[in-house]
Structures are given as C-alpha cells and as structure tokens.
Design brief:
Blueprint (H helix, E strand, L loop, with lengths): L1 E6 L5 E7 L3 E8 L2 H4 L7 H23 L8 E7 L3 H18 L3 E5 H12 L8 E6 L4 E8 L2 E7 L5 H11 L6 H9 L24 H12 L6 H29 L4 E5 L6 H14 L2 E3 L10 H13 L20
Helix pairs in contact: 2-3, 4-10, 5-6, 5-7, 6-8, 7-8, 8-9
The protein binds 5'-O-[(R)-(carboxyoxy)(hydroxy)phosphoryl]adenosine and zinc ion (ZN).
C-alpha cells in the first residue's frame, strides 16, 4: 500500500512516499532556514507562503524520485496538528484536495505521533512494545510510555519552554543563526561543558517534569555578567548549557526507568539529532541496562516520511478523514 505523506506543520515542507509503513520510496524536503534566520525563529506568515510556493513542486519531485504517478498512490496522509495554523492549512488542504480529486482516503496525522513512529520504522525488527519514548523537538518535550503505535501515556513533560526552543533562543541571543540547535551542537564541541554549572530545575512537588525557562534565564544572566565576552567563553557557555539541557532529560529518564524497568528507549524530534546526546546516552544505557534507538539525523527533524509511515497504521486503525471540519477531530489533543 503506497502512502503519500505531507508535512507542513512548521517551517519544513516535506513530501514522501512510503510503502506499507516501512519502505521509503522517496523523500523530498524544502527548508526555510534562510527565510527565518534574521528573526531568530519562524515567522508564521512567511512560513505559510513558502509552503504554498513549494508544495506542488515537492509533490512532482517525490513522484519522480519514486518513479510513480499520482494514480499509483493509495492513501494521502497529512499533518493536521499540532503546529502553526497557516502552515498546517497549506499542507492539509492540499492533501484534502488530492484525496478528493483522486478519490482515495485522507488520513489526518498527529505530528507528535509521527516523530514517535520514526525509530520504529527504521528498526522494525528490534523495537518492541511497551517501551519508553523521548520526544525532543522545537515545540514539545515529553517522556512517554508507548503501548503501541497509537497509544501513549505521558510520564513527563515540560512546564514551559521546549528543549529545542531553548537552543533556538540562546543561539538567537548570540546572533548565531536559526535553527539554533545544530549550530550550538557544532560550537559546543570547542567548549568545556563542565566550565559553568547552570542550575537544574526544582519543583515543590515530586515530579519528573522538565523546565527550560530557568536554564535559559541563567544562561542569559551569565552572559550579561561578563563585560567583554571572548569567543572561548561563548564556547564554554554553549557547551555548559547543552550539557545541562540534557542533564534535565537524563535525570527524569533515570527516575522513570528505575521506577518501572522497560528495556528499550526510543528518541525522536529535531533535538534527537544532537551529537552530545548521542554520545552521552551510552553511559546512561549501561547505567540503566537499557537499549536506546535513534532515527538517522535527517529523520529526526520534520519530514514527510514519518507522516506517511504512521499514516499507514492510522489507516489500518480506521482513522480516516470523514468530512468533519479539519481541526475539530484533531486526535492529537489527547496528548495534552
Ligand atoms: O522536530 P523538529 O524539526 O520540529 C518541531 O517539531 O519542533 O525540531 C526542530 C528543533 C529546533 O529547535 C532545532 O534547533 C532543533 O530541533 N535541532 C537540534 C539539532 N538539530 C535540530 N537541537 C540540538 N541539536 C541538534 N543537532
Ligand atoms: Zn517536529
């Protein structure tokens, strides 16, 4: 069964064709980094316009790469939330038009479910349910218990900023460009991560939840306290920030695995591409006696492959668009 997946929730336009939820036949993507870099974050209006400009071209490209034509496609899957409303509307309504014209089913896809599916798609014979899933993206930060492809229990979540948002805001403060995560990841290699001890979040009650606003403020206050900041100091600050950002995740993950041991932990979302995380998870694997799974970096950030992949399973589960208002049936709300 051939699924055409369309992703347009934020600033990447992605169109991919995937067979039976696992075989990637084509993957086309357009990035908007250049458009948003001077603003330090995504400008919703620009993002939506750019999706509209590129989406038709990406559809042609994806079909061409897979050596297919539209009449070969069995199902259309498209992100219907969460995300920027203008961006979502471009991709989702494009998908709705295709589904109507081709008379094939349309599957509304929850973007978070799609990120969480990606590792399963890459390691189909290894990952078992239940497992823990760690979602680290620009908009969300969760640790969940995955019971099957479509059934998740939230065990920990951010109380304020998402982890990727903290990376992006700090990179913006230093005028490093957008998106900040990858840039900080590279610069931090030159710094000493143990140079500055930034605080860990503290909550009054016992919880595994995260917070990133305190860390972000601590980093910004630290920068302001230095008069004439040198490049080496910036490298140390970024490395120390990055370490702390992941210490916060590791602390919760350790608590969760110690309270109920599941042997597998999958990662997803743009921040899961981070090299410090991928290096340092090795020690956690040994300490907790778990195995971790990461999608290849290009499938951590937003893409159409993950939408087509999970779209297949949503179709099998009968989650087909049946004509209600696009955003009223938004299944993703269950995750909040
Ligand atoms: O999953 P994603 O593409 O979009 C959302 O669903 O939000 O994640 C984007 C986020 C951005 O905040 C970006 O800075 C971050 O992922 N990111 C990284 C890295 N690559 C992308 N963060 C840390 N290290 C990276 N290598
Ligand atoms: Zn995403």
């Amino acid at each position: 069964m051939l699924v055409l997946g369309i992703e347009s929730s934020c600033d990447e336009t992605g169109i991919a064709i995937v067979e039976d939820g696992k075989k990637i036949l084509s993957n086309s993507i357009e990035f908007q980094d250049e458009i948003h870099k001077d603003f330090g974050g995504v400008v919703p209006e620009f993002a939506a316009r750019h999706h509209a400009e590129k989406i038709g071209y990406l559809l042609d490209l994806s079909l061409k790469k897979a050596n297919l034509s539209l009449k070969d496609i069995d199902i259309i899957a498209a992100t219907n939330g969460p995300g920027l409303i203008g961006s979502l509307l471009v991709g989702y309504l494009f998908a709705r038009g295709l589904s109507y014209g081709l008379k094939i089913p349309l599957i509304p896809v929850n973007h978070i479910l799609a990120h969480l599916y990606m590792a399963n798609m890459i390691f189909p014979n290894e990952i078992e349910y239940p497992h823990y899933a760690v979602l680290l993206s620009g908009g969300h930060t969760f640790i969940l218990k995955a019971k099957n492809y479509l059934d998740f229990e939230i065990l920990a979540k951010t109380r304020d900023d998402a982890i990727g948002e903290a990376f992006d805001k700090i990179a913006h403060y230093f005028n490093l460009g957008y998106p900040g995560g990858k840039i900080i990841d590279d610069i931090a290699l030159k710094g000493n991560a143990k140079k500055i001890i930034f605080p860990m979040p503290n909550f009054k009650e016992k919880t595994n939840d995260f917070s990133y606003s305190g860390l972000k403020t601590a980093v910004l206050n630290h920068i302001k306290s230095i008069d004439d900041i040198k490049e080496a100091e910036i490298n140390d600050i970024l490395a120390s920030f990055q370490k702390r950002a992941f210490d916060i995740i590791f602390r919760s993950l350790k608590n969760i695995v110690r309270s109920e041991h599941l042997g597998q932990v999958i990662f997803g979302g743009g921040v899961a591409a981070n090299n410090y995380l991928r290096r340092n998870i090795k020690g956690i694997e040994e300490e907790l006696n778990i195995k971790t799974y990461f999608p290849p970096k290009k499938y951590c950030t937003d893409n159409g492959v993950m939408i087509a992949g999970i779209g297949y399973h949503l179709f099998k589960a009968g989650k087909i668009f049946e004509g209600e208002d696009v955003f009223s049936r938004a299944d993703y709300r269950k995750l909040y």
